[in-house]
Structure formats: C-alpha cells, structure tokens
Amino acid sequence: MQQWMEYMSSTNYITAPDAVSGPPRLRYFLQAAAPAKSQFNFDLEALRGIAAIIVVLSHAFNPFNTLDPAYHTSGIWAYEAPGHLSVLLFFILSGYVIGKAHAVPLQKDTILLYLKKRFVRIYPIYLVCIVFVFLVLVQSPSLAVIYSHLTLTQGLGKPVLHAIAPSWSLTYEVVFYLLFVPVSYFRVNPVMLAVGMALLGTVAACFFPGFAMGLVPTYAFGFTFWLAGLAMATYSRPDESAASYASMVGIVFLFLTLGVLDSPPAMLHRAQLFLLKTDLTIAPPGQEAYLVFRDLAFLPYCAVMVAIFAALRLKFRKAIIALMTVLPALSWWHYLKAADGRLPVALFFTALFYLLSIVFFLFSARLEQFSKRVIKGLVPLGSISYGL
Q: 148: closest CA among 124, 125, 164?
C-alpha cells in the first residue's frame, strides 16, 4: 500500500478517487509503481527553461524596432535568436511531457481533472501578464480583442496584440491540449495522426489557402510537432547509457544558430516550389506568428533535442548529430558569397555558438562534468518558463 501511495504522489496519472476502483486497476498500479517513481525528468525542465530564455532573447536582441520604436540592436549584438523555432520545440516538448504524464489513456472520470491541471498550469500567470498589458497600453483595444485575449482565443478571428505578441502560441497549446482528450480517450495512433496532420496542412495550404481564414495549415503543422512529441513518449525507450550532458549543451549551441543558419528549411522550401509549383506560405489574418510547410524541416532538430535531454534510445546517434551539424553549415557559403568572403559582424554570435557546438560534441568526455553543472543550474527556470 505504501508503494502504491508513493506512485500516486509521484505521477499525475491518477486524477480521481474512482480512477483506481476495482481490483484489476489496483493490481495494475501496484505493478507499475516501481518504474514510475523516477519518471520526472529534471533535465527536460532545464530544456523548457532554455527554450523560454531563447524566446526572450529573440525579442530583446532584435535587429528591428520591435521592442522600442527608437532602439534596435546593431553590430555584433544584432544576433537573431531562434525564437520561432523555440516555440516549435515547446510544442514537441509539450506533447512528450503530456504523453508521459498520461501514459494511461484518459477516461470519463479523469478528463475533467486533466483539463483543470492544464488550466492551472497556464492561465493564472497569463492572466497577470495580460491584465498588466491592458493597463499600460496607450491605445485601448476593442472589447472583442480584450475578450479574445482573456479567453485565449486571440488569432482565431481577432488579432494578437503586438504588446504581448508571444501569447499567440498559447492559443495553439490550448487547442492541442483539448485535442489530446479524444486522441487519448480513443487511443489514436499518434504517428499516423501526425502524418495525417502534415498532409492536411500541406493540402489545405496548396488547394484551400483561404479556408477557415487560413488557420487550418498553421494549426495542422503545429499539431504535427505536438503529436511527434506524443509519439516519442508513447513508443521511445529510455537509454541511460546514452545520457550525455555535453551533448545537451552541444545541441543547445547548435540550436542557437538555426535562426540564421536556416539551410534545412530553405532546402525544403525549394523542393516544395519545384514539386508543387506553388508557395505554401499562408499568413492567417491577425496572427503575429504562424507555422508554414518549411517549418517541418526543423521537426527532426526538435525531436532529437528532446531525445538527448530525455536520454532516449536513438539509433545512429552520432551520424544523425553529425548530419544535423553539417546541414546548417551550408548557410555559411551563402553568407560568405554575399559578403565577398568576409563574415558579417552581425553573425559573430552565430559563428561562436556554432563552433562551441562542435567543441562540445567532439570533446564530450572532457566537458561532461562542466556540462552537467550547467544543465542542472538551469533546471529552476523550467518551472517558470511560461512566466518568462
């Protein structure tokens, strides 16, 4: 009985008293108790905090006048952090964490508490932020816009306030949380559904760009990322021997270059233009940001990043990391050619981060202890990632 109580306190699979009623379910939880005790992964909390910091950097270190109309970064400080890519990482990480937390499919008596936990996770800190924004806005928005932001439906018919532009992604998260209910309840295969969502987004962008205000492609592509994380949680297996903190730091540095070294999505975009003879970049009205077909090129990067931080089994690990490191380097040729062989000063941090990623990958054994201290030091940021 003590083992069962420990299991209940260490996971959120059990959400209602009647969820454990009856001898069969009790036996199931007693059998599952031992492996569940160590399920929480603090390294993934660090990854969540890292993604939040990158989003902050993308808004602060920006070469355009978005933070302050009279100010923008320049010179070596004109670093373009991959903020949009970090949102994609958040999606796949969210799907993975929800999949792990709810490995047992949702039932009628557990759905309500699942939704309550999602609400408590997001809405309180969001409400504080959005009320503050309303108080400091110079020009008051319409009641319809205020209502859309209070109900987390901004972008679905009403524009996202530029003063709190990052909130666009929370609407996506809410939609994905709701969609998880039937996916889990009916035990839908997340891999097949992810493929279906990618195809739906592609077909909708290609043949029905104006359907449902153009929202179908961006939400379908976003849900593809979320489902990829869910699929990893469902089918992947941990491999403690593959855990490497140096690889975690190395993949973070590589990730920090992808806002500029964007050859993977550029190649996918060219292939799409060649095969479909049309541009699948759909801009839904009122959206501060949105997802397009070429974003799918970053899905492997986000998935491998989560796999490294979660210490999951990954076949051909070294070859995959090597390929992921080489592909962005193709962008250097483009930048050097455009600048007559001289690296633009604005790419200073991008070049530095790229070199550091190679160093941490090549000398992982020597840098393991240092890397572990770095990752563990970032764990507390994960719990306030939404606040950031």
A: 164
Torsion of CA 87, 89, 91, 94, to 10 degrees: -130
The tokens for 146 are: 């205020």
pTM for this entry: 0.86
Instruction: Tokens for 221, please give them.
Output: 């592509």
Q: For the CA atoms of the chain, what is the radius of gyration?
A: 22
> Comparing C-alpha atoms, which of 303, 302, 300, 284 is closest to residue 292?
284
Of the candidates 253, 256, 260, the one whose C-alpha atom is nearest the C-alpha of residue 332 is: 260
Q: What is the pLDDT along the chain (388 residues), one digit of tens a residue?
A: 333 333 333 333 333 333 333 444 433 333 333 344 446 789 999 999 999 999 888 877 765 655 566 777 778 888 889 999 999 999 999 999 999 999 999 999 999 999 999 999 899 989 999 999 999 988 889 999 999 999 999 988 889 988 888 889 999 999 999 999 999 999 999 999 999 999 999 999 998 887 777 899 999 999 999 999 999 999 999 888 778 999 999 999 999 999 999 999 999 999 999 988 888 887 777 676 789 999 999 999 999 999 999 999 988 999 999 999 999 999 988 887 776 667 778 889 999 999 999 999 999 999 999 999 999 999 998 888 877 7
- Dist. CA 385–CA 258, nearest whole Å: 21
**Would you state the structure tokens that stand for residue 119, as one six-digit string?**
């609400």
How many CB atoms are located within 10 Å of the residue 23 CB?
7
- Amino acid code (one letter) for 189: N
Alpha helices in the chain, H assignment, sequence order: 2-10, 23-36, 42-60, 83-101, 111-136, 143-150, 168-185, 190-207, 215-235, 245-255, 263-276, 299-309, 317-338, 348-362, 368-377, 379-382
CA distance 230 to 222: 13
